Amino acid sequence: MEFKSTRDKSCCRICSRIGHQSLHNSVDEALLLKRKAEEVQFELNGRCIYLVGMMGSGKSTVGKILAEVLGYSYFDSDSLVEQAVGMPSVAQIFKVHSEAFFRDSESSVLRDLSSMHRLVVATGGGAVIRPVNWRYMKKGLSIMLDVPLDALAKRIAQVGTASRPLLDQPSADPYTAVPTLNF
Ligand SMILES: Nc1ncnc2c1ncn2[C@@H]1O[C@H](COP(=O)(O)OP(=O)(O)OP(=O)(O)O)[C@@H](O)[C@H]1O
Ligand SMILES: O=C(O)C1=C[C@@H](O)[C@@H](O)[C@H](O)C1
């Protein structure tokens, strides 16, 4: 695969509006990730990749890049649960049913995925708390995205906590709530 340099004049005109350094950092990170994926492609031998990590740790962002480079299909397990339950959001599933109901459905989704090949799966932030989920994920390769809590809180604060059932409490702001989650 050929990588086109983005450090040309038109790129920098865009950067001058949205923050040159941060855009170049994310381009560099994506490029590095693509190169690493190419390196491990043949050793994977079709095994699935499960991305685990706290909410906002970058599982979807990284997962889509990995899937594209590896020629894998990308799935988000939260979205699959929403489809299976027939509800538009995790927040609604928690509210109408319960977290336990959501977790049961999440385990069924992971069980079904575990019999497949050539998938990159972005798991839900809380998928790691159930041992049975690890039994399913062990059939592939699991990768933890370990992001410092203050960076996570900053990312979550940028989009708000309304769609985040575990953080959407009257007293909770992400800077104090994220470190209290027991994952
Ligand atoms: N390496 C990174 N550096 C800075 N910001 C990032 C990085 N990766 C992702 N982000 C940003 O963090 C936010 C969350 O990313 P993303 O949706 O990929 O996380 P996630 O782990 O899939 O979240 P969730 O599990 O809650 O769905 C997004 O706004 C994304 O642009
Ligand atoms: O958005 C949220 O608040 C959550 C979504 C799912 O990933 C869950 O796994 C997580 O525990 C909470």
UniProtKB/TrEMBL annotation:
Question: What Pfam families does this protein map onto?
Answer: SKI (PF01202)
Q: Which PANTHER family match?
A: SHIKIMATE KINASE
| Subcellular localization | Plastid, Chloroplast
- Please report which protein family the annotation says this sequence is part of: Belongs to the shikimate kinase family.
Coarse class of the protein's main subcellular location: plastid
**Keywords (A to Z) from UniProt:** Amino-acid biosynthesis, Aromatic amino acid biosynthesis, ATP-binding, Kinase, Nucleotide-binding, Transferase
Q: What does this protein do?
A: Catalyzes the specific phosphorylation of the 3-hydroxyl group of shikimic acid using ATP as a cosubstrate.
Looking up CDD domains in the UniProt record yields:
SK (cd00464)
Taxonomic source organism: Triticum urartu
Q: Which GO molecular function annotation, any one, does this entry have?
A: ATP binding
| Gene Ontology cellular-component annotations | chloroplast; cytosol
So what EC number does this one have? Answer: 2.7.1.71
Q: Which gene encodes it?
A: LOC125523163
Q: Name one GO biological process term.
A: aromatic amino acid family biosynthetic process
- Please report the name of this protein according to its UniProt entry: shikimate kinase
The catalysed reaction is: shikimate + ATP = 3-phosphoshikimate + ADP + H(+)
